[in-house]
């Protein structure tokens, strides 16, 4: 059985295995997940503090990290995160895609030129992040559970999150690991490769972006053909997640990732499909194996658990699930759970 739960300090080594080593395909698809033990341990500790609701006015905004666990083996197979406020108290940088009209009345010439404007307009939106999963589980129920469990967590803790949510989707990369957009633009301003810059973005202060990236608009026509073709396109391995998020209600807008020009998806939090279709119900038991497969979650803060289960409705409103699901969720008959259809 698959279970999504908060990450714990003992999960560090397994999460590092999922993140992979520098230069691997897995690493390039989990760029916001620290691949250094100390940084990852600090991220988990911040998550646990956030889950406990112990944040004060002077603290950094809440950040949460969850793992996908096989309850039979206890092995961790994936991670998914939420930053309650994108930027975590600092500017959250993107490029805004727009256009300028250049015209000469004397020559009778008018041309539309695409431009990228540095922006931090999405700062403080809720950010879904740190999604990674072992390759064999892509396009499975476990993949969908891991991604959508975050939205059930938001639904169960709505006061912690903003009115709008965003997701950065990893952009185009070549088979050799090179990044066309970075090669055409970013590398001219940073004395580091793409992977190093992206890791800094995930683990360090974002001030280096403001200090090193050009503050002026970037004319798209000055970029390489490969970089222009990559604008707003997802990495081929992120397409399943891209499509799942579209089904949730996220849409690509005018914003692009500042390093690889991947699409930034936006949605109104209260309109997310899983949140809208989820219902708070009372838990009852059954020995039958009937009903529809649903996402079911329970627990507040660090006690949050989410899994897939066959759920049978009753005329009175409670839902019936097997006692084995009770144990996985840490709940019993009469407790409150939240259910969303698959």
UniProtKB/TrEMBL annotation:
Pfam families: AstA (PF04958)
Presence of keyword Cell cycle: no
Signal peptide interval: none
Gene Ontology annotations of biological process type: L-arginine catabolic process
Keywords from the named record: Acyltransferase, Transferase
MF-aspect GO terms: arginine N-succinyltransferase activity
Species for this entry: marine sediment metagenome
Protein name: Arginine N-succinyltransferase
């Amino acid at each position: 059985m698959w279970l999504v739960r908060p990450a714990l300090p003992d999960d560090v080594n397994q999460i590092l295995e999922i993140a992979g080593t520098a230069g691997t395909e897995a690493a390039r698809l989990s760029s916001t997940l620290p691949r250094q033990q100390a940084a990852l341990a600090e991220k988990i500790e911040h998550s646990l503090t956030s889950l406990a609701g112990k944040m004060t006015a002077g603290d950094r905004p809440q950040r949460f990290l969850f793992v996908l666990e096989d309850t039979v083996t206890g092995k961790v197979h994936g991670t998914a995160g939420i930053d309650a406020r994108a930027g975590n108290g600092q500017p959250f940088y993107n490029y805004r895609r727009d256009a300028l009209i250049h015209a000469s009345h004397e020559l009778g010439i008018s041309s539309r030129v695409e431009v990228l404007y540095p922006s931090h307009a999405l700062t403080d939106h809720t950010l879904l992040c740190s999604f990674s999963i072992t390759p064999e589980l892509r396009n499975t129920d476990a993949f969908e559970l891991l991604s959508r469990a975050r939205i059930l967590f938001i639904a169960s803790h709505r006061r912690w999150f903003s009115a709008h949510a965003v997701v950065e989707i990893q952009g185009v990369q070549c088979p050799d690991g090179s990044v066309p957009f970075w090669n055409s633009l970013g590398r001219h301003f940073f004395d580091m490769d793409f992977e190093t810059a992206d890791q800094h973005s995930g683990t360090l202060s974002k001030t280096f972006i403001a200090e090193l990236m050009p503050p002026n608009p970037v004319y798209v026509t000055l970029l390489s053909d490969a970089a222009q073709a990559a604008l707003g396109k997802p990495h081929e391995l992120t397409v399943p997640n891209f499509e799942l998020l579209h089904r949730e209600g996220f849409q690509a807008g005018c914003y692009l990732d500042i390093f690889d020009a991947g699409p930034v998806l936006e949605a109104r939090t209260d309109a997310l499909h899983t949140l809208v279709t989820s219902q708070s119900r009372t838990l009852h038991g059954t020995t039958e194996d009937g009903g529809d497969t649903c996402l079911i979650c329970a627990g507040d803060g660090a006690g949050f658990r989410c899994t897939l289960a066959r759920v049978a409705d009753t005329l009175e409103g409670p839902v019936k699930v097997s006692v084995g699901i009770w144990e996985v969720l840490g709940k019993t008959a009469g407790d409150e759970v939240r259910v969303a259809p698959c």
